[in-house]
Amino acid sequence: MSDTDFTRADVCAAAIADAFSQDGEIFASPMGLLPTLGVRLAKLTSNPDLVISDGESVFLGGTPPLGGKDVVEGWIPFRRVFDVVAYGKRHVMMGATQVDRHGNQNISAIGPFAQPKRQLLGSRGAPGNTVNNRTSYWVPKHSTRVFVEQVDIVSGVGPARAAAAGAGASRFNDIHRVVSNLGVFDLGGAGDTMRLVSVHPGVGVDEVVAATGFALEVPDDVPETRAPSYEELVIIREVLDPKGLRFKEVPAA
């Protein structure tokens, strides 16, 4: 294996790891397969101070492979998670059925609020996450159905809505990164709108723009998302995901 032998899934895992690299000693709370892989990669490389859990009820004393077991360091039943949410020492990465140019996220339902066409998870912890903690999003299939001009129902709150609601909602609102299978984004555009930060290797800017259902801010010079290092590839393939579960979300071909 060489340091040029990487897949799109490996690039996504490294991009997610980068989103957590500067957080220091906080509770990293990834939701889903690639976010979990990326957070654990960050803990083994750029940010060893991250506190991670099994996603259910315990803090882990090490960094197990996906689906693996490890030494339990502490106990955090779900009700205790809300204490951490309110305290703020947490960075959560959630999914997004829809996300709009203002960083609002929808995981509740598709269609009109009064009579939606499809019921989803419900808002769950998204409102509390986005007004109390740093929040990022992972989108495995970037399309105009996901990246929309305006979400049907606001589950996760973007900065404009948080500001309109007052200091209690805006003080800790921090939509940090959106990582998709095509690129990396932030809310550094005009008026805190979504901006293209980088495109993954093999992806063109035009491809990202065509797959986005709103006017995405595109800088004059868009860099390529960095490729994972040889060390990171070894960790991903031999330590964290030897079964290749990441390819269920981002196919290798």
Automatic annotation (TrEMBL):
Molecular function in Gene Ontology: CoA-transferase activity
Domain of life the protein comes from: Bacteria
Signal peptide: none
Pfam family, one: CoA_trans
Alphabetized InterPro entries for the sequence: CoA_trans_fam_I, NagB/RpiA_transferase-like
Keywords for this protein: Transferase
Family statement: Belongs to the 3-oxoacid CoA-transferase subunit B family.
Protein name, entry field: CoA-transferase subunit beta
